Amino acid sequence: MACISIRAWGGLWQICLVVLLSAHVTALDCSNFRDLQKVLNRNSMQLLGQVAGAFPEECLEVRPTFRFPDKVLRSKAPHNAWMATYEILQQLFSLFKMTLPKTAWDTHSVERLLNAVHLQIKRLETCPPTNGLYPSSRNKATKLKKYFRKIDDFLREKNYSKCAWEVVRIEAKTWFYYLDKLENRL
């Protein structure tokens, strides 16, 4: 009889949760949208913590050359919160998809994180804002795209080093905090 470790069961549980939620994501109406997004967001944040260990001491000297555009968080309008949430998740997905061949991170954990973020994106797509997007929403999307472009530039300048990726991973933890704030406005 095969023996499965506790750690493996934990990973299987998370995968089952993502599969179960993704199977039902389109069947759900949008009335519980915010609550489900919060659960998915917390799950993604936990998965991000599992991709690598503690921040390496040798990376303490590496300073980021980018700063999150806080203005995108200031609007109280649901359509702006939806757009900012969607853009952050899309950019996060693209960025971390790129990490797989370039880091020493746990590939399995990165894949689980990507699946969870993809599920959040799909959920957002099934429940867009009822009143559409406004020019101010597009302006905020542009600011976020510039910010993520700076992150790409930072990684390139640092030759996609381990320390550069670790700085980005720490920055990504703040994205989930911002997503939590934005999801309160959806």
Automatic annotation (TrEMBL):
What does the protein in this record do?
Has antiviral activities.
What PANTHER family does the annotation carry?
A: INTERFERON BETA (PTHR11691:SF73), TYPE I INTERFERON (PTHR11691)
Say which domain of life the source belongs to: Eukaryota
Q: Where in the cell is it found?
A: Secreted
Q: Does the keyword Cytoplasm apply?
A: no
Q: Does Secreted count among this protein's keywords? A: yes
Q: What is this protein called?
A: Interferon type B-like
For this UniProt entry, which residues form the secretion signal? 1-27
Family statement:
Belongs to the alpha/beta interferon family.
Q: Name one GO molecular function term.
A: cytokine activity
**The entry's keywords:** Antiviral defense, Cytokine, Disulfide bond, Secreted, Signal
- SMART domains linked: IFabd (SM00076)
Q: Which GO CC annotations does the UniProt entry carry? A: extracellular space
Q: Name one GO biological process term.
A: immune response
Q: Which InterPro entries match?
A: 4_helix_cytokine-like_core, Interferon_alpha/beta/delta
